[in-house]
Fold each of these.
Amino acid sequence: MSVMAGAPQAHAGIDLTNASPERTMPTRDTTLRVVASICASDALNHALRATASRAMRAQLGTPR
């Protein structure tokens, strides 16, 4: 999906549609929420890969 250059972007549920220039800098709280979201995403990805790996081994009958 292409995005216009300079267009405000929504990130981590923040609406920047009518943001004034002085409000576009993220606050500490926003930064922490983004970091927590990335960490949670990474943890979920790791758990899903481990589950898929176990399921594949179980189906193939190969011990770990």
Amino acid sequence: MAAPGVANIPSSLKSGIQKYMRIAAEHDKRDPVVAYYCRLYAMQHGMTIDKKSPEARQFLVSLMDYLEQAKKTLGEEEAVHNEVAGQAHLENYALNLFLYADTEDRAGRFGKNVIKAFLTSSQLMDVLTTFGELTEEIAKSRQYARWKAFHINKCLQNGETPIAGPFGLLPLLPWENFPWSSVQPGVGFEGVAGPSVPPSNMTFSTDSGLFPSPGAQAPPSTPQDPPRQQP
């Protein structure tokens, strides 16, 4: 049974679940466990958005059927049948991706792969809410990853050099207000729709608690507490 495709997502669900379905499709061969939980989260989240329209209901039912079949196919994968193992697997994957992006960013190596890694890690941390409330450290990392993806992308679009590592003012960007339309296509999340928040409407904070704790996520080879700079 083939997985429901990204192109088949009804318009009422696209802005809410397309990004997670896209990650799932990218990981079907690379990491089926990650793909499974991304689709599971997409189904659960989709049901909170629209489960009444015929198109949405048909898509969500087909996704549910696929997940049931996938669970049988992945019968030997403990992470699919055991929530503790599943959470550990997904958290480890998301943090490794975050660490890659954080290492590259702090070293001043900016590019589309870093933007995608930051953004995908934050989306996988969304998927982690399938298992319950995020820990404070994961929540901080998710917020930080979103902001760094936006900052690097905006700088590259404007021909500017991004600021490496944590710095000065961190905007509070709730997930539903992430400025998706400002992110260029071709970074691994083509066509993802979402509301745009002009920079002038962003709320800023200098609260250091919004940043990952020094060294908490950064590998030993990277600067763990770089000086804060004003953008």
Amino acid sequence: PAEDAARWARLPGGGEVVDLGFQQDPEWSRIELAFSKPTPHRVVEAGPDRIVVDLPSTALPKRFTRALDTSAFPGAVKLVAAYPRGRDTRLVVDLRKPAPFRIERDEAHLNLLVAGGSAEPPAVGVAAVKAEKDRVVLVEGEGPAAEAQAGEAEGPVYTGRRLSMDFVDADIRNVLRLIGEVSGLNVVAGDDVQGKVTVRLVDVPWDQALDVILKTRGLDKVREGNVLRIAPAERLAQEKARKLEQEKAEKEQAPLVTDIVPVNYASAQELSDKVKAVLSDRGAVSVDERTNALILKDVAERLEQARALVRRLDTQTPQVLIEARIVEVSSTFAKDLGIQWGGRFEASTRTGAATDWAFPHSIGVSGDTGVGNFAVNFPSAGGAAGPGGALALTLGHVNDVLSLDLRLSAIETAGKGRVISSPRVTTLDNKTAEISQGVEIPFTTATEEKIETQAIEYKLRLNVTPHVTADRSIIMKIDLSKEDPSTTFVAVDSQTPGKETRAATTEVLVKDGETTVIGGIITNRQSNTQSGIPWLSKLPFVGWLFKSKNNRVDKTELIIFITPKIVNQPVVEAAARSL
């Protein structure tokens, strides 16, 4: 009665199923359920071959979530399935033929009785499932099947709700209907889908179970929206082949469309070969170099694919700012010691010391032609007027007959210089940036016909080729060279100075904004020079009166600090995400 149905529908629910069983009586097929709390029910379908009962706000333990094949019993029921639907539980009973039914219940029990029994004793009296784990079960969440599936590198990926089923000689149509209930999809099978299957699957996704069952019977499926169509695999393959041939014929008959695709950052000529790969046999591509555009001709579908490819490839090239600090540290030490001495002796009437002879009546001897012109002249590099120091001494005889000049000069210098240059240049990804600075030194060459003045250039040159990686690091190819005039190697015929070159080539990986250092390019020059009068300069002690000595040490080190920075950072990040 309607009053009883309304009464049971008003029960609070909130409990769970504690027992589920099937029993075949001589007159009835009986499905029995027991609940932990008063539980409502609602009959949602009562068709000629199916009965569906919902239990609102009622949980179904995993041990009862199952499908039970009862086709071995002589009654009207051939399949019983129970599974959760959100917070509710649904009970589905498939019938062998239309049969009347009724529901008997109290607050904690529900018995569904379907008419159509047999006086013969049933093959199995009771099919209870209180503690059986290897019956048909629907499982929510992750489990062993998902873990095994995730470990497979090949094959399809199954994502359906997992279930377990155990059937013996079950009608495949009934099994497909059960899978349709679990998946929530509509299942359509033709007359050529028939036969029986024996299945025991434990904890597998329903879509995998469906594929396995279909393969055992030589069947396949096609999904159209929320409908699964089941048919023999050979028939579906023929349909697919006919469809592909039809689509190919339609494309061959489709009109060709011409489109002009502008290219902003890349070279249209370089993109043309890549775009040609996605066009059909009827398609063509040409390049307008003046506007840097691609002219495409093909069917509309292929044109859209070509445009999408151009959009992906025609991205803004990363730009990199190269900041360099070029430091040259030099130290110089020089030490010079020299001597200049000479004298004058004059015996004449002017000095009052003439000789007693008629000839020579007067005698004069000096270092050169007089005082200040030295007999031994080895000054220091600074000389008397240089930056060094000098000591002069004059010794003379009364009446100025004899005089002696002596000048000691010495210079000692030490210097340390630092030349800093901070050039900055911006370049594109994979394009070389060159930083150079230098000087031109003129020199003169003389021939029989004319005298020419030429110049030799001496440069400090730094070449950097950056490449921006996907994680916004920067690979730099660095080529460094420094040229200096050579004081050692000079062309004899033209006095043309030579070149001394120091170079370094390397490749480094740094993060955006980090600094790399190139150092250790060191030049060390030492010179010791000694000048003097032969034999006399080698005398012990007094030999210093006849010689001068020069010691010089020059040391130079070149250090380069290079800091790359990505200028168009947002564009680079967007391009990396699109890959």
